[in-house]
Design goal:
This is Amino acid permease. It is a multi-pass membrane protein. It comes from Periweissella beninensis. By secondary structure, the protein is mainly alpha-helical. The chain has helices at residues 15-26, 30-33, 35-42, 45-72, 79-87, 89-123, 130-144, 149-177, 188-193, 197-208, 224-253, 256-262, 266-311, 318-321, 332-348, 351-380, 394-413, 415-426, 428-442. Helix 1 packs across helix 8 (149-177), helix 5 packs antiparallel against helix 6 and helix 5 (79-87) packs across helix 16 (351-380). The longest helix has 46 residues, at 266-311. The two termini are 25 Å apart.
Length: 443
């Protein structure tokens, strides 16, 4: 028998694991597949590069803001825990419900589909097997996370090391050997029908998303009050530098017309052009491992949130969900439920729609979390012994404005999709009322 009272999460993850989770979770499919999308929306390489930088600034200000909150509340659950502490149990539940029912499974599903596309292209597998390939990818990586957390943490570190190879190769080739000089160039056909800079930034934010997931491991880090802020800030800063350099390298190596024509295959086309067929294949393997590491980070993080909610009796079947496996000391049941939800989404939707809606809905709660820093400082005061956000209050204001900008642009571009994702979140209200009633009766 498993006893959740006796089995505890292992506090055995260091800064290298936390930093690897941030970098490994963030640097995945986005930077490799969104180059053409961002260019098409902006119409020129200069504006596309600016969109990547602004997306990074929005992400960094949000990370700095959350880092102070994380230092105050170093517990498992991350965003769910922060929302509950600042706004009360209802909003904490709703933010957790949003992540475990919509955001988390949608991100895992979309990334698995993107990875399956790359694997299919690499091995010349027919597109009719794409769904099966996506499912196999999810099952294999998910199975790793059913074991002790040291295995998934090891894979997170390994995938980060491996993904350095294709990224470094792309950057170095573009900077020193690229001769297209596409910086400043534009496509007239693109400019004629686009120009939504906000949608372009939204596209970059999908690539930057995932940094907050490390906060779900607050009870598994050795010194979370110090390590969480360090991992968030250093990790996001590294990602911004990498994304800017990769984008610059792509624009120096490939013409804007080629980027426009290649679409999601832009980076694959670049590495083949730069390093030949064999070199391109080897670097493609690195990219595949990179995205697999991103999926691993998300599967490692979201079930821990579901486990935290189950432990707090917030979800149906909380006894099973809020229980750790006695042998592996991992949230096995929560992991299985998360994978099941992701598989359902994968079968009935597509990667682009899932990723866009996932980013939108999480930013609704990001706005509330960022604003929460003002509430916490007023309520609890300023503790200078812990990390404090620099340039307060400017930094959280920029984070709030950036998140609001994302929400507005998604609403005006896809009202129907926004309504669907909103309804999925609101379905959590009757679940909350039912669970609250059951808990009250049991007490």
């Amino acid at each position: 028998m498993e006893d959740k009272q006796e089995v505890q999460l292992k506090r055995n993850l260091g800064l290298s694991s936390a930093l690897s989770l941030v970098v490994g979770t963030v640097i995945g499919a986005g930077i490799f597949i969104r180059q053409a999308t961002v260019l098409k929306e902006t119409g020129s390489t200069s504006m596309a590069l600016l969109a990547w930088i602004i997306g990074g600034i929005i992400t960094l200000t949000g990370g700095l803001t959350v880092a102070e909150i994380a230092a105050k509340l170093p517990k498992a659950g991350g965003l769910y825990t922060y929302m509950e502490n600042v706004y009360g149990r209802f909003w904490g539940f709703l933010s957790g419900w949003m992540q475990v029912i919509v955001y988390g499974p949608a991100m895992i599903a979309s990334l698995s589909i993107y990875l399956a596309i790359l694997i299919s292209d690499f091995f010349n597998i027919s597109s009719q097997w794409q769904t099966l390939t996506s499912l196999l990818v999810m099952i294999i990586i998910g199975g790793l996370n059913l074991l002790s957390n040291r295995y998934s943490a090891f894979f997170a570190i390994t995938s980060v090391i491996v993904k350095v190879i294709p990224i470094a190769a792309i950057i170095l080739f573009g900077l020193f050997f690229g001769n297209e000089h596409a910086i400043g160039a534009s496509i007239q056909t693109v400019q004629a029908h686009t120009g939504n800079f906000g949608v372009a930034i939204l596209g970059t934010l999908f690539a930057y998303d995932g940094w907050i997931l490390v906060t779900n491991l607050g009870e598994e880090l050795k010194n979370p009050r110090k390590m969480l802020p360090k991992a968030i800030i250093i990790g996001i800063t590294l990602v911004i530098a990498v994304y800017t350099l990769v984008t610059f390298a792509v624009f120096k190596t490939i013409s804007v017309e080629a980027i426009y024509q290649q679409g999601d295959n832009t980076v694959s086309y670049m590495v083949t052009k730069a390093f030949g067929v064999l070199g391109g294949k080897l670097l493609s393997i690195g990219i595949i491992i990179s995205i697999a590491g991103t999926i691993n980070g998300k599967i490692m993080s979201f079930p821990r949130l579901m486990y935290a909610m189950g432990r707090d009796r917030e979800l149906p079947f909380y006894k099973q969900i809020g229980r750790l496996n006695m042998k592996t000391q991992s949230p096995m049941n929560a992991t299985l439920v998360t994978l099941m939800l992701a598989m359902i989404m994968m079968i009935f939707s597509n990667a682009d729609w899932l990723s866009a809606k996932a980013v939108f809905i999480v930013y609704v709660f990001y706005v509330m979390t960022f604003f929460g820093i003002f509430i916490l400082r007023k309520r609890d005061g300023l503790d200078k012994t812990k990390f404090t956000v620099p340039l307060y209050p400017l930094t959280p204001i920029i984070a709030i404005a950036g998140a609001a900008f994302v929400i507005y642009n998604e609403i005006v571009t896809d009202v129907e999709g926004v309504l669907i994702s909103g309804v999925c979140v609101l379905l959590g209200i009757p679940v909350y009322l039912w669970q609250n009633k059951k808990t009250t009766v049991n007490k």
